[in-house]
Design a protein that fits this description.
By secondary structure, the chain is of the alpha/beta class. It is about 40% helix and about 15% strand.
Amino acid sequence: MADINSYNIVLTGANRGLGFFLCTYLLQHGHSVYALLRKENRAVLALKREFADNLFLLKADVTDQTQLRDAFHRTAGSAAAVDILINNAAVHLEPTPPDLEEIDFSVYAPTFEVNAIAPLKVIAAFLPLVRKGKRRLIVNISSEAGSIADAWREREYAYCMSKAALNMASKILQNRLGKEDIKVLALHPGWFSSDMGGSGAPITPAEAALKVGRTILQDWHGKDIIYLDSDEKQLPW
């Protein structure tokens, strides 16, 4: 069932997990998705066959500015504007987080590069099209793990610190881009089963994508909230 308004949406990390199911949800609701991914897989190619006219697969590493510029130009070749930009791509390089003395610090820089710095690179690349959009919305998929006020973990430094950095980036972006009537959200999608979330999570990626999709498609302009979960509850910084 299509929404009354059809949007052009840029989505990173669209080939698996939350990104794949969010891509599916948006396509099913009549939107066009420009999906940035490092590599294609069977699932996303099947989705492309089903939504041939509305799904555009753009191979790009979100950390590579040259590839992002190329993805921008390919998007601009078929879309006059980008209505919503969703930074979903992320990594968790400590599947079994070690205690402080056993940390492998070599994963820290890559974690920050993908989770905190790459979203800024994506936004910088696509901002000219976002400025022309109907929705003028940027969504950074964050996490409750980025909340300093609610921090409860004793490990997972890299992931939590990177999401806290993404939250700070989101606040600064809102300070700057809000002057142009562009809304920025840092959205916690909930705990769902995935490579990052593990098998013990209470919901599936498809269920998380349903809630995230509904939240994203609402009108957030004029609301002070930036950091929230998919139940639309404001989270503490």
